[in-house]
Amino acid sequence: MSTRTTEHKEGKATVKVVYYTSKTLADGAHPFVVRITKNRKQVYRYTGLSLLPKYWNADKKEIRRSYPEPKREELLKELEKWRKKYEAAADILAENDEEHDAKAVFKKAVEGRKAQRRVKLLAFIEELATSMITTGQVGNAGVYRDLGNQLAKFIGAESNAPEPPIGKGLIAAKAAWIKQYDVPLDHITVAFCNEWEATLRATGITEITLSLRFRTLRTVFNKAIAAGLVKASNYPFTANAAERHKFQVGKFDVTTAKRAISREELRKLEALEPVNDRQKLAKDVFLFSFYCGGINFVDLAQLRWRNLEGVNEQGYPVRLNYKRQKTGGKFSLPLLNPAALMLTSYKRFTFSSPDSYIFPILDLQKHQNPDQVKNRLHKVLGQVNKDLKELGKQAGIAAPLTTYVARHSFATTLKMRGENTAVISQAMGHKSESVTAVYLDSFASDVVDAAFKGLL
Prior knowledge:
By secondary structure, the protein is mainly alpha-helical.
């Protein structure tokens, strides 16, 4: 006698985010719900997101283009997060071949959320910093780690914990401290921000540093929301004018003294003869930054000969192509004669292969890992800025010169010559200027190239 068995294969639940017109909210909007269908049975869960009917295209079942940006894009992203979250739960149950109904999908998704909530504030900040280091964003990682260190001090004082171990060689001790005294991400409330601000102010901290700390904390919170680690409803920062009861990151006074010099003052620096190689490097760094879109020191120091493209009739390189360390943005700039001539003068000293650094700041043999590069850049930048201040005095320039002044001078010179702010922003890579960015894509590269001629 033979027996025959039939293998059971559990089907997968279908997940869809639906504009639920059967329910009308107080403001006339309809909510979006997640609909799970399994074995012809459906269950619904509210997402907390809604939309007025005038912005919904019932025929195409999509949000109309008339819904203002960036709200439309943000809403679409949030809806997609909800769908993916429950889609992942449905996938897991189907792959495990577990017999289940639609409600089980929601239960599985809730289990995932509970697991995610175990990630805490300081641990999440350290995770972000570590991720940045692996992608070469050492400077940004330092900003995040500094935030974590300052928060650890405050959190420790709040709970009468011992001073957090901070510094090189204390990685294990710091990790152990965080594990014991860390707080949930939703510990960041309006009250927490107000108390931390008062504590920081008592130390005599500057407004600019306060702004940096809280802007970074706000970014951390936004990343945590995007990762599903904390609810958007717990957001403690002001998102619009109506939320004055929340913490306002924009309240800090970040105005500074004049940082740009005039084109006439820059010509004085160009005409100045440095007394030694160190001053020559400082002068060249400043002028190259000015002529190349305000390129910052970190990017300039890491330029290699392979970043140059083309050669003109005089044998000078034609373009500079590089990737900005801070944002990852890609730049292609025309090399004006003063900058091209400067590069040519360095070639016989620093060129050994296309991978060689252009400027004599980093050494391929000595500076191989991110920490070595970071430490070297920090040391040289301090010396360059010191030398620039001395050069400025010699040239009769009143404003103290720094590499940052070169960046400001580039923008100011073009603005004084009537260039469009959006073109200047594109040349400088101001990705954070979202309003300007809407228009930037429409500018052809030759428009930006033409703007550079105003520097001469």
